[in-house]
Design brief:
It is a single chain. The chain contains eight helices and 13 strands. A six-stranded parallel beta sheet has the order 1-3-2-6-7-8, with helices on both faces. A three-stranded antiparallel beta sheet has the order 9-11-12. Strands 4-5 form a two-stranded parallel ribbon.
Length: 321
């Protein structure tokens, strides 16, 4: 089926496509990512993963796919003390997403997929999806792209984890939210008007860790010890090995020199509890784990896995939304 970019299309083309299309909206953030990573990381990755996924599968989709311009700002107030951050309050972000859903409905659209790239947006995206479905009759799916990373192959040396095992602590936000685990991936079948579908929320084999987190949810380890030979990887972390590798795979110019970080600081943790403290991010200097271990090869492999998984979800969502 057709793959179109909203901002490259005219009103007549969109009027023809939207009643049957699924509209993909990447949602990210512009915020500090440590001393080494570009501030646009979250929206750049959400946009890149979503665009590539749509390109991979649109010919097999039963519905047209319309790709909306990425939302480059998110709920990032917790990063303001470090500088380099353009933040919306959670209330403003919620209002913006609802206004976009309202506009989509007015334009004739009935299906929206939010592809989120920022942990601090998770709860807001969930709330926006639920509210848009009930207020405007739009069927909405909400996906946190990093949750689609499949369980990885065991490390070459399972007993030797680079940089130490992933520890619970102050981590980039939001892998779990109300309703995410029970909803899981999209199931075959027709969604009721105004339904909310949570895709990729609790991928097979994912392990969650409690800790002081951005936006209040929990982090999961790279199941199985990461890509072969790489050891455990905190996913998504914040400006750590995972995001840094993905950005190296996009363009090495996005990544500055990284210092070795043999003993990454962590924060307090309570099992199955999301902790919010004012000092969590200051304790870890605004980034997690070991970006010094990131490399472009891992980034390309993870990017390919993520885009393939998201492509599969888009095909399913075209059936059920």
């Amino acid at each position: 089926m057709t793959l179109a970019k909203w901002h490259h299309s005219n009103r007549a083309q969109l009027a023809d496509l939207l009643p049957e299309a699924i509209v993909v909206l990447p949602v990210g953030a512009t915020e500090q990512h440590g001393p080494h990573l570009a501030t646009g990381t979250d929206w750049i990755l959400a946009d890149a993963v979503a665009q590539q996924a749509a390109a991979l599968v649109h010919e097999r989709s039963v519905r047209p796919i319309v790709f909306a311009p990425p939302m480059p700002f998110g709920a990032s107030d917790h990063h303001l003390p470090f500088g380099g951050t353009l933040s919306l309050s959670p209330e403003t972000l919620l209002a913006v997403l609802l206004d976009l859903a309202r506009s989509l409905h007015a334009d004739g659209g009935r299906r929206l997929v939010l592809v989120n790239g920022h942990g601090g947006n998770v709860g807001v995206c969930h709330a926006a999806a639920a509210a848009a479905s009930t207020r405007y009759g739009v069927n909405v799916a909400h996906i946190n792209y990093w949750e689609l990373l499949p369980p990885q192959r065991p490390a070459a040396e399972p007993g030797a984890v680079e940089g130490g095992a992933v520890e619970a602590g102050a981590v980039e936000a939001g892998a779990v939210e109300p309703g995410a685990v029970e909803a899981g991936a999209a199931e075959p079948g027709a969604a009721e008007p105004g339904a909310v579908v949570e895709a990729g929320a609790a991928e097979a084999g994912a392990v969650v860790e409690a800790g002081a987190v951005e936006g209040g949810a929990v982090e999961r380890r790279g199941a199985g010890g990461g890509v072969e030979g790489s050891g455990d990887v905190m996913v998504p972390g914040h400006a750590g090995r995972f995001e840094t590798a993905l950005m190296l795979a996009q363009d090495e110019a996005f990544v500055a020199e990284r210092k070795e970080r043999l003993d990454p600081p962590t924060g307090p943790a309570v099992d199955d509890v999301a902790l919010h403290t004012a000092g969590s991010w200051q304790r870890i200097d605004g980034y997690t784990d070991r970006p010094d271990l990131a490399d472009a090869a891992n980034g390309r492999e993870w990017f390919d896995q993520l885009t393939a998984a998201l492509g599969d979800r888009l095909l399913e969502l075209a059936e059920v939304l």
